[in-house]
Design a protein that fits this description.
Length: 215
DNA sequence: ACCCAGGGTCATA
DNA sequence: TATGACCATGGG
């Protein structure tokens, strides 16, 4: 990126002033965050709410129950959030993974992340969502919204999730963000992205953030 | 009708 | 390592 590009901290401060993220990842339990993270893959959160309501009504927002549920039954309940054949299998595998929750809690963050990515159907972004919101570890979510936002801010951002993470993680680390800040950061970025879309794109919306240089 | 959404897998080069 | 096809549903 150019030397004039704003720091992560300056971007965070600007978003805090301009955006209201509300309560970003609403969930009653850690397992509900795991389920929501899988269901929301490439799907609007509204669709996920329908599926979560179905699962809650069926008493399946519990790892022990979900782990032994037939895939066909699951598919019927999660149909509103799409990709039901793949996601039903992923949910069952994720529930089995979750049964070992006590030992996962003791893992260092990078090993927790790797353990999640080992579950088929859970990739880097879903893993980071779970690590951040479920296990409250300090990680930045390098999703498409973040990559678009940082590009608009003048950062040179690689295309893929993992390439962006590899290359730009040091710039986030410099900001010395706490876990609650990183959780808020992600929500702010996504809400800002939605706003930017309805305002005709980042080119129009970014300048209204009035990001301070060097701050 | 078209495009997108709080991605991941698999095949291919 | 990195790109592209494919997956499924609901809303604007």
């Amino acid at each position: 990126m150019t030397s004039a590009a704003p720091s992560a901290r300056a971007l965070f401060d600007a978003l805090c002033r301009r955006i209201d993220a509300g309560q970003w990842w609403p969930a009653d339990t850690r397992f509900e965050i795991v389920v929501g993270a899988v269901l929301t893959q490439n799907v609007a959160w509204r669709n996920v709410e329908y599926s979560l309501a179905n699962l809650r009504e069926a008493g399946l927002l519990e790892a022990q129950k979900l782990a032994t549920t037939a895939s066909a039954d699951l598919q019927r309940l999660i149909r509103p959030s799409g990709f039901m054949r793949a996601k039903s299998e992923t949910l069952i595998r994720a529930a089995r993974w979750f049964l070992d929750d006590a030992s996962h809690t003791r893992l260092p963050t990078d090993e927790l992340r790797a353990s999640l990515i080992d579950v088929k159907g859970i990739g880097p972004e879903t893993a980071d969502d779970i690590v951040l919101y479920g296990y409250e570890r300090p990680v930045f979510i390098w999703d498409l919204y973040a990559r678009r936002f940082l590009s608009a801010a003048g950062w040179a951002v690689p295309r893929s999730y993992e390439a962006a993470r590899r290359t730009l993680q040091p710039l986030i680390d410099e900001g010395d963000f706490t876990t609650p800040e990183l959780a808020h950061f992600h929500g702010l970025i996504v809400e800002a992205g939605k706003k930017a879309r309805s305002c005709g794109g980042w080119e129009a919306f970014y300048p209204t953030l009035e990001v301070s240089q060097r701050g």
